[in-house]
Amino acid sequence: MYAQPHGQPRPRRPYHQRFNATRRINLSGPQVWIAGLGATVITAFLLGLLGLGLYLYATEDAIPSGVTVAGLPVGGESLEAARASLQANLPFQQITLRDGDRSWQVTLTDLGVGVDLETTLRRVENASSGEAVVPHYTVDLNQAQTGLIFMSDLVNIPAQAGDAPRAGRAIDIPVVLERLRVDVSGEIADGVLELSMIQVAPPEPEVVARPTGETTTHVVERGQELGLIAQMYGVSVNDVIALNDLDDPNLLYVGQELIIPAAGMYTPTAAEAPAAPTSSGKSIVVSTGDQRIYAYENGQLVRSHLVSTGLPDTPTVLGDYKVYVKYAATDMSGPDYFLPQVPYTMYFYQGYGIHGTYWHNSFGRPMSHGCVNLPTAEAEWFFNWAEVGTPVRVI
How many other CB atoms are found less than 10 A from the CB of residue 302? Predict the structure, then answer.
């Protein structure tokens, strides 16, 4: 091996060896600026991608802007936030009940209406920006009928007899229930439910003799009107009007004393009642003229009460029939009405029956779609008393 003597200068390498040797490059000036700009652009691009990803992640469940549900703004919220908001607010949404130029405010729950939240949220998910989403409504018909019965005390206008007779108006609850059953969302989507109403004709004037027998005195209490008082005692409104010489039956005052005929339990005498269909066994007569039902046993009158038979457009059938089936409670429906769980029903011809009535208390005047309406307690008595096969005569 060759060794370099100590202290001697190192010999120079050949030129081609020096040319191929690795050289150190010193970057400066424009080259450094270009390299820094490229790094900045790349960093900004990566940060932009990261921000976009975070935005998409944060908004992947967000509802489009401007979306509302029954007037409640939910745009920009997550589905879970919208769910909580709708669950807390929709049940108390205001609905307007309207009869012509008269109106009343109730809530969804007052009307037995609920909201299918999951179906509504699916509509919200698919909504366009600014869309007004209609909730998917449901209805509990039993709660709806309770609400309508309560509202009828405010809405109904009693018919007026006397020197200035006036027709009345009453909610046709069976028809309203049927409309809600068929299309509850369509009926209330605009926040208004137009009420179906029945025109109640004023009673025909009658000449009523004062009773010579025992009477009772009723003291008017707060909130009572003549129709309800007459119903309490099972007498007609006209009887009370005539006995008390009332000029305006709508003008009662608290503490007023009214004479009620026959000790408050008026029953027509045998001479006043129509003839029994048969002299043996049990039988029933319904008088559409008197708006009364009569129960007979062996030809003798045993009970009578006011009823409501068919309206002029839907009259009760006349003739002789028999009770052919009895139901403690049954659903009833027609072309334009639906009634759930009608109590103590006795059918005597096709869909015509005698039954309890929870949707009005205007007994003594036509109100039905053809059936014979009774107060529920009275219908229960007739239901328990009459058997299948009992003759029914409608006159």
Answer: 12
